[in-house]
Amino acid sequence: MVRALIVCTSVSHGNTRKIADVMGAVLSASVMAPEEVDPTELQGYDLVGLGSGIFQMSFHPQLREFVRALPPQPATAAFLFSTSGFSEPPFRRYSRSLERQLEQKGLKVLDTFSCRAFDTYKPFKLVGGIRKGRPDIDDLQAAHTFAEHLRMQTIPAS
Ligand SMILES: Cc1cc2nc3c(=O)[nH]c(=O)nc-3n(C[C@H](O)[C@H](O)[C@H](O)COP(=O)(O)O)c2cc1C
Known about the structure:
- One of its GO terms (biological process) is heme biosynthetic process.
- Pfam families: Flavodoxin_5.
- One of its GO terms (molecular function) is menaquinone-dependent protoporphyrinogen oxidase activity.
- It is a single chain.
- It is built from five helices and six strands, in the order βαβββαβαβαα.
- The chain has helices at 15-27, 61-68, 94-105, 122-125, 137-153; strands at residues 4-9, 30-32, 47-55, 58-59, 76-84, 107-116.
- The protein starts with a strand and ends in a 5-residue tail after the last helix.
- Helix 1 packs parallel to helix 5.
- By secondary structure, the protein is an alpha/beta fold.
- The chain binds flavin mononucleotide.
- The site of flavin mononucleotide has 22 residues, from helix 1, strand 3 and strand 5.
- Residues 10-17, 53-57, 83-86, 117-121 line the site of flavin mononucleotide (FMN).
């Protein structure tokens, strides 16, 4: 069985947590906030997932700080996931940027998942938010399928 851990910051509406819980169930992984994780324990896992909502075109500061403070790791498979009002714009590849930082720490990002989610950022709050009801059943199914593919891709360390 793959030993997996999911590190998730979900502070706005719990949107990303819904995605993390589905992935966690598929991978038999605990879902923990960055402040609950001892970075030195990551090396005990075959697969580490990191995710948050997107805030001002970046992953949440708590997740970014967790990655920044990580000590160098033995080669470990990883994945990224996020929820946001909009898709990642081509001029601001925040997933790629976090992926690079993870790679510098020894974590190799196998894949990235993103879906739209309820968004009440300032201008949208005035109209009651956008993407109401997201993540929906289709998003959760997509997260499930994504995690199944990861599980098949990840060979447990002996
Ligand atoms: C202050 C603030 C800033 C946000 N900035 C962005 C953004 O830059 N791009 C985007 O697509 N969504 C943005 N959003 C929407 C969130 O990414 C979205 O609601 C996300 O699902 C929140 O995840 P969470 O509920 O797991 O915290 C923003 C929301 C808030 C409240």
